[in-house]
Design brief:
alpha+beta; 5 helices; five-stranded mixed beta barrel
């Protein structure tokens, strides 16, 4: 969601450290250690050493969760940790936005398993889906160039019908929003809310008069209530909890938005922002109560789309307006609409 800077600045030239985010919990303090979360399951420890080599890596320990992995690295000094956080927090590793924080809370035992991200996307060969395609070349034949390979991208979990139906029933008690998506056709303007880098998938708000009215009504109501609703206590947060949390929305800062708890572990919660189509890991103590049905009458603002051709670049494309037309539905997930960009 955010427009984070993905360049790693030289620590010698970076003087204004500020206050870096911290990985929360009640662990033994160790200021020379950094936490990196939301990494791919198959990430290698050496990749992390190379990523932080300019900060003086002394040791690295990888831990696994259900859908991702995270690591603890001891760096040269507390100052190096602060620089690493400032330079790398929110950057991309294989299309995932990583969380980099001061790991002042490391427990002496193994960290709890935390579901901190959706699984990586992968290319799925057409024949694996029962679709027609050219035979896969044998080892002694010439390999097809990527542009000629007939392959489809695996649909991200948060865009699949099984996930959306479950979430919609919990949040809105009905799934009419999902069924109404297929009615969108023809020329459209889309406000991009989140993209899956190096894939064709993205979440966007279909810019219509009705949608604009819903946006105004919803965000006004949330802004009025934000400072009044209480923060949730740890015991009240569980999978399926409807709540309010801050979501990074690019250069414009943060916005409080409706969200649904996917998972919680220790002092963290993974939430799905229903109006932005974005998942993120946030501290439990940052969630506010938002369980009154009146805040869930407006259907989700964003919906899933897929580019008809091409994929999104590694850079995060946030708050951009795309003009083009809806040209059909995705065969495997008909609620995901195929979008063709307007020719320049």
């Amino acid at each position: 969601m955010s427009n984070h800077n993905t360049e790693r600045n030289n620590p010698k030239t970076h003087k204004n450290l500020g206050n870096p985010p911290r990985h929360p919990g009640s662990f033994r303090k160790k200021d020379s250690e950094v936490f990196i979360g939301n990494l791919p399951l198959d990430v290698k420890e050496m990749e992390m050493v190379l990523l932080l080599k300019e900060f003086g890596v002394k040791s690295v320990k990888k831990c696994m969760s259900l859908c991702s992995s995270f690591v603890f690295l001891e760096l040269a000094s507390p100052e190096a940790v602060q620089l690493a956080v400032q330079c790398l927090n929110g950057s991309l590793v294989r299309g995932r936005r990583i969380t980099v924080a001061v790991a002042e809370d490391r427990r002496p035992h193994e960290p709890a398993k935390i579901n901190t991200g959706m699984p990586d996307l992968e290319l799925v060969l057409c024949e694996e889906l029962g679709l027609n395609s050219d035979p896969v070349p044998k080892a002694d034949t010439q390999i097809l160039t990527p542009s000629k390979q007939k392959a489809l991208y695996a649909v991200p979990i948060e865009m699949r019908t099984s996930f959306l139906v479950h979430m919609l029933k919990d949040c809105f008690q009905e799934v009419s929003w999902l069924l109404s998506i297929a009615k969108v056709t023809g020329k459209v303007g889309l406000l991009v809310m989140d993209t899956i880098p190096q894939s064709p998938y993205f979440w966007a708000i279909h810019l219509t008069k009705e949608c604009h009215q819903n946006m105004q009504k919803l965000f006004t109501a949330l802004a009025e209530v934000e400072s009044q609703v209480p923060f949730l206590i740890k015991q009240d947060v569980h999978q399926g909890t409807r709540c309010l949390a801050e979501c990074v929305v690019g250069n414009e800062g943060n916005a409080w938005n409706r969200c649904w708890v996917l998972e919680k572990a220790e002092d963290l919660a993974m939430v799905f922002f229903v109006d932005f189509g974005h998942s993120a890991t946030v501290p439990l103590n940052s969630l506010r109560k938002l369980d009154r049905d009146e805040f869930w009458k407006i259907k989700p603002l964003a919906q899933p789309f897929a580019l008809q051709e091409g994929v999104f670049p590694p850079q995060v494309m946030m708050r951009q307006i795309l003009e083009g037309k809806v040209v059909g539905q995705l065969q495997r997930e008909p609620h995901i609409l195929k979008f063709a960009l307007e020719a320049n």
